[in-house]
């Protein structure tokens, strides 16, 4: 977790989103470190803090971590950076007041050298209420944000995955915060005895919540690493289109061009992908005079031979039509007058949609090449 924090501050600290998340994670890791046995022993041996005081300070630090996470969630909820900064002043002010109130209410337990669970009393109930109030507010905001993102129709899979992670973290924070106050109150009233359960739960929940936030925080670094080695979507799509592009360049050499120096790295840019899509689409336009309707018998053989699913028959047939055009041109046929009814049409309006369309052609290109049949000039003129 310390490595994740250091990496984020060094390489992912350029936006308000990243700053709030980095502060959150740094404070959560600090809270966990204060609970490490080695650090607790060191603080005690040097007469700086007792073990109980270190544990309570760890909880107070989590209040400030929750405030920073609220800043992240506020910004994510379509607030402007200026609005978020103004609201975040209140978050931090409230965190400072709650932390001071918590430490004051927890003083009797601290003096007795006991945890809040062991010491009990209404002062401990008050301490839990002050501690968890900001966590409950955070859980509510986090769950609302996660649900909105999960229900957003245009959300990408990675965004849905992060939102699902945020939803799980929100449930964990909310449930452990609410039950801390309820169980402490019921214990004080003598209606339930849950000290052992609460000691076990509260001893690990901060760690696992930190692990969850670390997972979310590590996503940008993991994404940058996968992009570096060419495993990002842009690079993968570029590679998947290369066999089709090479075939188009061979069929229509005039479409070959390079925008500046060729990119030899594994990581490809949107410009590299755009160049590939432009070349393929240009070749299809150049082959317009060689397009013709696919013979139904040929299409049926093609479907049967390659087990083309019903849902894939339209792009598979379009690919076979393109392969037939390439073979017809290679056979030396004279291009026929343009017939727009048999030309491959595109409904794409951006690079993402264009890439998706061409990837469908690339998916069936090897099979279409095997079954392609040229037409003579006489047949094409009919």
From TrEMBL:
| Ranges annotated as spanning the membrane | 57-77, 89-107, 119-140, 161-186
Pfam families in the record, alphabetically? DUF6545
InterPro entries, alphabetized: DUF6545 (IPR046675)
User: Does the record carry Membrane as a key word?
Assistant: yes
Keyword entries, A-Z = Membrane, Plasmid, Transmembrane, Transmembrane helix
Q: Can you give the residue ranges of the DUF6545 domain?
A: 233-366
Question: What is the recorded name of this protein?
Answer: DUF6545 domain-containing protein
Which species is this UniProt entry from? Answer: Mycobacterium avium subsp. hominissuis
Q: What is the lineage of its organism?
A: Bacteria, Bacillati, Actinomycetota, Actinomycetes, Mycobacteriales
């Amino acid at each position: 977790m310390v490595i994740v924090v250091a990496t984020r501050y060094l390489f992912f600290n350029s936006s308000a989103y990243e700053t709030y998340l980095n502060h959150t994670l740094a404070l959560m890791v600090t809270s966990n470190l204060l609970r490490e046995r080695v650090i607790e022993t060191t603080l005690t041996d040097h007469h700086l803090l007792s073990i109980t005081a270190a544990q309570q300070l760890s909880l107070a630090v989590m209040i400030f971590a929750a405030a920073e996470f609220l800043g992240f969630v506020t910004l994510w909820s379509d607030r402007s950076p200026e609005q978020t900064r103004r609201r975040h002043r209140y978050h931090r002010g409230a965190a400072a007041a709650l932390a001071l109130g918590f430490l004051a209410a927890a003083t009797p337990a601290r003096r007795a050298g006991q945890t809040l669970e062991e010491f009990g009393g209404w002062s401990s109930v008050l301490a839990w209420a002050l501690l968890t109030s900001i966590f409950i507010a955070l859980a509510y905001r986090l769950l609302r944000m996660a649900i909105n993102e999960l229900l957003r129709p245009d959300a990408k899979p990675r965004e849905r995955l992060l939102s699902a992670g945020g939803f799980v973290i929100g449930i964990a924070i909310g449930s452990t915060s609410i039950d801390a106050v309820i169980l402490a109150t019921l214990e004080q009233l003598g209606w339930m005895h849950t000290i052992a359960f609460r000691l076990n739960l509260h001893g690990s929940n901060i760690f696992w919540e930190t692990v969850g936030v670390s997972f979310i925080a590590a996503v940008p670094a993991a994404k940058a690493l996968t992009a570096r080695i060419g495993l990002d979507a842009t690079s993968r799509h570029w590679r998947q289109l290369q066999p089709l592009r090479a075939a188009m360049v061979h069929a229509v050499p005039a479409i070959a061009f390079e925008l500046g120096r060729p990119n030899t790295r594994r990581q490809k840019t949107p410009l590299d992908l755009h160049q590939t899509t432009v070349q393929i689409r240009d070749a299809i336009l150049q082959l317009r005079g060689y397009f013709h309707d696919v013979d139904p018998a040929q299409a049926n053989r093609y479907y049967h031979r390659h087990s083309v699913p019903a849902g894939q028959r339209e792009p598979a047939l379009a690919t076979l039509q393109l392969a037939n055009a390439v073979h017809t041109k290679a056979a030396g046929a004279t291009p026929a007058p343009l017939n727009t009814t048999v030309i491959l049409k595109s409904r794409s309006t951006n690079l993402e949609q264009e890439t998706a369309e061409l990837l469908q052609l690339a998916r069936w290109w090897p099979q279409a090449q095997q079954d392609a049949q040229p037409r003579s000039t006489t047949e094409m003129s009919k």
